[in-house]
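User: Hello, can you help with two protein structures?

Assistant: Certainly.
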Amino acid sequence: MAKAPQRRTPRRVVNGVLFLDKAVGISSNNALQKARWLLNAAKGGHTGTLDPMASGLLPLTLGEATKFSQTLLDADKAYDATVLLGVTTTTADAEGEVLARCPVDVSDSDIEQALVKLRGDIEQVPPMYSALKHHGKALYEYARAGIEIPREPRHVRIHRFECLSRDGDSLMVRVECSKGTYVRTLASDLGAMLGCGAHLTALRRTRIGPFVIDGAVLLADIEAMPPEDRDSLLAPVDSLLVHLPRLDLDANQTRSFTHGQSAQGCIGAAGGVFRVYHDEGFLGVGNLDDAGALVPTRLISTSNQ
């Protein structure tokens, strides 16, 4: 006799931000799906991918928080990384095939001089093994087929690129950079400048915007908790917007704002973008003009908070 199909528990509305410490060996999307499953969350997204070989901070947005993911996609980031001199690979990291091995005869001073040249505003050619699209297809798909696609250099800003320690040909480095920076390309460029080649052997993201890895949780930590306690790990939706000034509305202004209309008479604040509240409830984001009219640019649903 055939078994009756098991009923799946309906996904529930979960709103908030989960600051995940992604482990090595899992993709960002798989980490997101596992977290959604553990929280039984209906909707979720992430704020910038980490390669499977990388670990570290991966903020996950759930429910209404997905509307503000772009905030962190555009933010500066910080990484700790390990670079091995003398070996180049197809992917500029440890997952690629070795292309060449060269002797390493560089001093600490040589390394510092090369690092200086890679700081500040630089042009960086995205690697072929990346998720960037060309005619709707990821570059890594072309790379796996042996096809080289011309890529335009992109402007990025390297706020910090320093060697923390050296163990033979292996360097521990720290990078603070703008969005769109490929740390493995930095490692490859460093090796090229030193004349010996290099590739990335480890990468850990430690900061995105104002958020740091301290306090982030592993998937294993979530799994070990009783299901009823897991929501306590979530930060509120507006935690992604702490960099914006706050504006509180009265009842009449709130009525207009939440219906997609401009709220008038918002005096006492300079123009600009604000996170907006009424009676401590977060309503969304609005743009305030010099006449005191607040135009909603992103509203959240208050019915399921």
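That covers the first. Now for the second protein you mentioned:
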Amino acid sequence: SMSRKATCADNAPMENFFGILKQEMYYGEKLVSYEELKSRIEEYIYWYNHERIKEKLAGLSPVEYRTQSSQS
């Protein structure tokens, strides 16, 4: 469902993610080709979901946390 104009709360998680992506992956680097950027972003998203540890998730990556939550 599309949000009404001026309802930005639903965008907050993605805005936050892109901010983190820019800080952690791309800050201050030279521009690269579209293909290179696409592959770097795909690698980053994999790393973010499978390896990046989050304090809010009890020191687990999002995938580890989801797996543990679904098993309990």
